Amino acid sequence: MRKTNIALLLSVLCVFGSVANAQTTTYPNQTIKVLVGFAAGGPADVIGRIVTQHMSGTLGQSMVVENRTGANSLIATKEVAKANPDGYTLLFASLSHNVNRVLLKEKAEYDPLENFVPISLGAVLPLVVVTAPDTPYKTVADLVAAAKKSPDSISYGSAGNGGSAHLAGALMATVAGVKMLHVPFRGNAPALTEVMAGRVSFMFYPMIGIANMVADKRLKVLAVGTSKPMPEFPGVPTMDDSGYKDFEQTAPWVGLLAPAGTPEAIVNKLNAAMNLALKQPEVIKRMKDLGATPSGNSPAEFRAYLTQDLERWAKVVQAAGIQAD
User: Fold this and answer.
1) pLDDT, position 19
2) What confidence tens digit (pLDDT) does each residue in 286-297 have?
3) What DSSP assignment string belongs to 181-248?
4) DSSP character for 300?
5) From its phi and psi, is residue 136 left (phi > 0), alpha (psi between -120 and 50) or beta?
6) Please, are residues 203 and 213 in contact by the beta-carbon 8 Å criterion?
7) CATH superfamily placement of domain 127-250
8) What's the CATH code, domain 31-124+253-320?
9) The pLDDT value given to residue 18
10) For residues 294 and 284, is the Cβ–Cβ distance under 8 A?
11) 251, 126 in Cβ contact below 8 A?
């Protein structure tokens, strides 16, 4: 009787193994849903659509981007974390993937590393320090000097609490040892409007669309958050040159994730398709036009990147005393 039960168990396991192997081998054989936690037209949405459009051709199956807005991408993130790990529900994530967990802790209801399998980093979006053209500040050092002279007299805008501009500004203030006033807005556009009007001292802003505003003398760039100077802004120093080392690591990122438990073969197939997309000249051009830098890598490399990113922002949030809304 015992031998019969063991034989039956082995038989069942073999069947399940064969089914799982067949599903992996034939993947994908239906539409792949890719969730984005932000509104259509934003960097994560636009870059996600550019990448998945090319991936669809490689995989021979449609990849449909769906926007699940709300709670700084928390809604989309939790939906994918609970999805069936079969490769048909993915998350095109951003910086908020780690930051939400840092700010909310257990209330986030997910772990950014344990509940997801990294597929590949997609791109990074370098930040630039901008101010109104008629402000007296010509360098980052000028901002810091003014803040030292009069704490909280220097303000910096952002698209909201815990966003990339907020974290970058908090990091700069923490490193400089000064107090600056954070002014959150409902999006980058209204924050930038107040900066241009001079009612907010400065902000860290993604490169997107900045060059035209600088050319029209509606904005002034004090520094670029990259390791090397940007040709779009000749003569503008980097944050490294301004005394803030490795500041390029603060650049917002976007990347593709799958629910934990997704088979390795499926992850590798998605990774290969995504890295192929990121090497295409038309994809590279479209990303650069958006101010983004394509940055494909392996699942292991992306996991290491996410781990370092999580640790970095946890330290910044703690040092700056940033609280969830």
Assistant:
1) 47
2) 998 888 889 999
3) EEEE-SSHHHHHHHHHTTSS-EEEEESTTHHHHHHTTS-EEEEESSSS--TTSTTPPBTTTTT-TTGG
4) H
5) alpha
6) no
7) Periplasmic binding protein-like II (3.40.190.10)
8) 3.40.190.150
9) 47
10) yes
11) yes
